[in-house]
Amino acid sequence: MDAAMAGPETCDGDPRGLDRGAPAEMTIIGAITLPGTERSVADGRRFVRETLGGRHPAGDAVKLSVSELATNAVKHTASGTGGQITIRLAAADNAVRAEVTNDGATGPEPRLANRPEVDAEHGRGLILIDTVADRWGVTRSVDRTTVWAEFSY
Hints:
Layout: E1 9-11, H1 15-18, E2 27-35, H2 39-52, H3 59-76, E3 84-92, E4 95-102, H4 125-132, E5 135-140, E6 145-152
Parallel strand pairs: 1-5
Antiparallel strand pairs: 2-3, 3-4, 4-6, 5-6
């Protein structure tokens, strides 16, 4: 199995381990909490565009990743059954970090699976994120799960 298929970096509820190797001195540049509905996926993309600006060098990759992570949160976690999602953006010199926090998954944590069949309608979200992000990972606490991705430019 190649390194990309091995899955994300994981940190079960220990925020100190979350930023190993991350750009130093990340500053939160925006956060928004939205209802766990399909409409919030578009609102999340708009939030990224408005926060980073329309011409940000990592903007397209961050919007794509937030869209995929928000969709997964709404479809596969308690956020989609009356809960909420929180999108947070942080920045450092030449790097952006996007986080989507959901109300907690009851199943296994997000991971890269085998590549889907060519005509499959689902299963490409994390593959896309793995392709466009420099690194990504999962942090779980008792009642929340955060999936994050980092992008350099």
